[in-house]
Design a protein that fits this description.
Elements (H helix, E strand, L loop, with lengths): L4 H17 L11 E6 L3 H13 L4 E7 L3 H15 L4 E3 L2 H5 L6 E4 L6 H10 L3 E4 L7 H10 L7 E3 L7 H11 L6 E9 L25 H5 L9 H5 L11 H4 L1 H12 L6 E7 L14 E8 L4 E8 L7 E7 L2 E6 L3 E6 L7 H4 L4 E4 L3 H17 L9 H20 L3 E4 L4 E4 L1
Parallel strand pairs: 1-2, 1-4, 2-3, 4-5, 5-6, 7-10
Antiparallel strand pairs: 7-11, 8-9, 8-15, 9-10, 11-12, 12-13, 13-14, 15-16
The structure holds nicotinamide-adenine-dinucleotide.
Length: about 425
């Protein structure tokens, strides 16, 4: 939130100039993509595993970059174990980007670093798999959309629910009329954890982490300068300087997949409320552990009712697509339930539809593998990416509007013609 607009514009102009200067480099259909992993923390290593499991033979992890030496070493070990290779290692992502043998990069760093890394990667001629959210602020997202509108580089945003076969089935069922007209989606995410558990975003902080071996300055990047703080480095999701919290970490997946399934992207009006209610003891988190958002689309006669609470896990997470003839819900990304409406007097043809459940174990793993496969196929010119920049833009903006509403205590309106928001 602290980025100056002038800096963004200056850096963007520099990136755009470089993009034009960069020669188009195509990858032959038979060659393996040479991948650079930027960020080998939890997600970067998970994506490395999924890539080796899901698209063997289509890529090599040829280089990795991380500012924390502990995670760089873990990333290197993983590539050795899964890929039998020894990648080049970097602490500065710009040095990795300068390596001409790298075709494409995966960016799996904290949210506040996404904008600059994406722009620099495109300027260096790389294809990009960018973890969600697209950016950290409305202004950054606007700049990305504008500056990269005509890029020939292939960008896949890491909202893998689009590649999940159950959401694809839900989309098809809705198109076939199985739930009738759908004007309403209820989406939720409920979690609980021990005070030092990952469910509460209190990830373990390595005891040996120091200002030097984490490269604190590079972690801060465009964020405001402050003294070294291990919690901020390893638990960055809890602080506004690096994250929009629930809205861009969890909700972003759910509004993105709603846009995919029913075609409704950025809402016209957003109202959000919440706070830090559960994790108050010895906890300096800034982002709420409790939010409710009402996302409204009056011209489309559509509404999303969203809630998230990190203090009880009973109801799990999922999305319910509620039509006048039935409901489709996808729970935990791995179970699809279909329920025809059953109110008194419901027409016979609706009643005749059979309720059913389909469960696919480990389905998020499969979705991520499919998402990476789709990105590599798009780089080879065989497919189109399923989560392009515009999808990332819509999901990120929806998250930012929720944060703006929550922090200002006001309703926020989005103008779809100018791509700008106002406070009501
Ligand atoms: N799609 C999904 O389902 C999903 C799931 C988890 C995380 N994510 C996303 O992945 C990204 C990373 O999340 P995470 O959980 O892996 O966080 P993490 O803190 O575990 O990992 C981030 C890594 O980035 C490194 N890093 C920090 N600054 C850097 C810099 N300037 N240059 C290079 N490396 C730097 C850190 O040392 C760390 O290893 C986030 O955008 C997050 O939202 C997506």
């Amino acid at each position: 939130m602290e980025l100056s607009r002038r800096n963004i514009l200056r850096n963007t102009a520099a990136s755009a100039a470089l993009t034009t200067a960069t020669a188009f480099k195509s990858m032959s259909a038979n060659s393996k993509a040479q991948i650079g992993m930027i960020g080998t923390g939890g997600r970067g290593r998970y994506l490395t595993e999924r890539a080796y499991a899901g698209v063997p033979g289509q890529m090599d992890v040829a280089a990795i970059c991380d500012t924390f030496t502990g995670n760089l070493a873990r990333g290197k070990d993983l590539v050795a174990t899964k890929g039998g290779a020894s990648p080049k290692t970097y602490a500065d992502y710009k040095e990795l980007l300068a390596d001409k043998s790298i075709d494409a990069v995966v960016i799996a760093t904290p949210e506040h670093l996404h904008f600059r890394m994406l722009m620099d990667a495109i300027a260096a001629g790389k294809h990009v798999y960018l973890e969600k959210p697209l950016a950290h602020t409305v202004e950054e997202a606007q700049e990305i959309k504008k500056a990269l509108a005509k890029t020939d580089r292939i960008v896949q945003v890491g909202t893998q629910n689009r590649s999940n076969s159950l959401y694809q089935k839900a989309k098809q069922m809705i198109q076939e009329g199985m739930i009738g007209e759908c004007h309403y989606v209820r989406a939720f995410w409920y979690r609980n954890a021990l005070p030092d558990g990952s469910g509460a975003w209190r990830y373990a902080v390595p005891a040996d982490a120091t200002e030097q071996n984490t490269d604190w300055k590079r972690f801060l990047g465009p964020a405001r300068t402050r003294a070294f703080n291990k919690n901020r480095y390893f638990q960055w999701r809890l602080y506004w300087d690096y994250s929009n919290g629930i809205a861009t970490d969890l909700m972003v997946h759910q509004t993105d997949v709603t846009a995919y399934v029913v075609g409704k992207g950025i809402p016209h009006e957003v109202m959000a409320n919440g706070g830090v209610y559960r994790w108050t003891k010895n906890d300096d988190r800034e982002v709420p552990d409790t939010i409710s958002c009402l996302l409204d689309y009056p011209p489309d006669k559509f509404h999303i009712n969203y809630s998230c609470y990190l203090g009880n896990s009973r109801q799990g997470y999922g999305e319910q697509f509620m039509g006048d003839e039935g409901t489709i819900e996808v729970i935990s990304r791995s179970t699809l339930n279909f329920y025809p409406e059953a109110y008194p007097g419901v027409p016979g043809h609706i009643k005749a539809r059979k309720e059913f459940t389909q469960t696919i174990p480990n389905n998020d793993n499969l979705a991520v593998e499919s998402h990476i496969r789709n990105w590599l196929a798009a780089i080879r010119g065989e497919e189109k990416v399923i989560a392009p920049i515009n999808a990332g833009f819509e999901a990120a903006i929806t998250g930012f509007l929720s944060t703006v509403s929550l922090r200002s205590g006001r309703k926020v309106k989005w103008d779809h013609k100018t791509d700008k928001y106002t406070l009501a």
